[in-house]
């Protein structure tokens, strides 16, 4: 699905490894027989099919890609403790993603609270960036792939909703990381068009406001 | 980090560093780690946490979630049970691996561990925290989830296996096993609720019996009467019922229930899967 951050994670992992892939866009309102066959449990995208075998759950697919193509770009660190840290932060990000969605689906006071809560979660995540260029260290790693979508999506949400979340004042490290991440050619190439994303989100936001 | 001779021996030295586990006796997440450590034959110090009065150590070691279990290895702390289990495999790769070696099989194991914590666990928690039609809906959800696992045992990814890990228990056995004992306990505490029917889920049932018969599982899972007492206490607290439950279990249950915790969310209760 063109606007899914979870799908982008998988594309980024494949592209970093230099793996060629066929991309099949799903209409989530009208899921294909293939999707339902490949992921009967959650029926969600993304699903990666490799040698006829389906893998679901983007955080799991990314680890799979790293292990299946283990000679290529190292997505996970080799050190056990660093790997544990990476898995922890991916889990944290997934756990708290509702805090980000809440900004989009609320207004007025509720939205102010949602923005503040999102900021608190991001501040916690930001601690994992201290002293590093990327969450992965000098280069893009697992956590960067898992949360990198913030760099492209959050500014769109901020613009559509008229809120500020990731500011130089409140989240300087994260803001700086946004810039570095979006400058990585391999990642930039896979992002959905910003204008298209903006238009789609504006439309959805209007639905929220008129509900 | 490349595997140079220097850091291979660093890793070997690190593997020798002492292990300490902060946990809670009724937490299935804690049991997962205890079981995994026992399966790997790793010695560890255990520190019981009073979840109603968390230690400074716990708050310092897990500032993000403030929860158990937390494993401390060589002075570094690791929270989140499934993260810890994978860490044990990464740090002790040659001792009784919990994850299979093939990347696809690893992805499958991780998928179902995620399912256990994201879908099944909360559904079971919801059953326990509700009554009436809300509970009926939650029970249906549990059945749907168990049916998916049963299908994998019957004709899917785990067809014909003694354990999810194959002939030996693996990470999914540990994750599902440490928590599935609550199913029978909850059935006992809540009259008329059937969660894991041997007729409806014969393969899951057989797997669970096999898992619970393992020495390491018996050493890890608390005795049923303690679990019952705890569950009764939590159920009373969740439903805001005053007074004693059933017979002798009640005073212990009341003590354990009143000692800690203001109204826990379904996912906060140690009675997780």
TrEMBL record, chain A:
Recorded GO CC terms: cytoplasm
GO molecular function: glutathione transferase activity
UniProt keyword annotation of Calcium present: no
Catalytic activity, EC: 2.5.1.18
Domain of life: Eukaryota
GST C-terminal domain ranges (all copies): 79-209
Short name of any one Pfam family annotated for the protein: GST_N
Keywords: Transferase
InterPro entries named among the record's database cross-references: Glutathione-S-Trfase_C-like, Glutathione-S-Trfase_C_sf, Glutathione_S-Trfase, Glutathione_S-Trfase_N, GST_C, GST_C_Tau, Omega/Tau-like, Thioredoxin-like_sf
CDD domains: GST_C_Tau (cd03185), GST_N_Tau (cd03058)
GO BP terms, alphabetized: glutathione metabolic process
UniProt cross-references to SUPFAM superfamilies, sorted A to Z: GST C-terminal domain-like, Thioredoxin-like
Gene3D superfamilies linked: 1.20.1050.10, Glutaredoxin (3.40.30.10)
Domain GST N-terminal intervals: 1-73
Catalytic reactions of this protein: RX + glutathione = an S-substituted glutathione + a halide anion + H(+)
Similarity comment: Belongs to the GST superfamily.
Name of the featured protein: glutathione transferase
Organism: Digitaria exilis
TrEMBL record, chain B:
Keywords: Transferase
Any one cellular-component term (Gene Ontology): cytoplasm
Domain GST C-terminal: 102-237
The EC number(s) this enzyme carries: 2.5.1.18
One term of GO molecular function: glutathione transferase activity
One GO biological process term: toxin catabolic process
Catalytic activity, as annotated: RX + glutathione = an S-substituted glutathione + a halide anion + H(+)
InterPro entries: Glutathione-S-Trfase_C-like, Glutathione-S-Trfase_C_sf, Glutathione_S-Trfase, Glutathione_S-Trfase_N, GST_C_Tau, Omega/Tau-like, Thioredoxin-like_sf
Gene3D superfamilies to which the protein is assigned, alphabetical: 1.20.1050.10, Glutaredoxin
UniProt protein name: glutathione transferase
Species this protein is from: Digitaria exilis
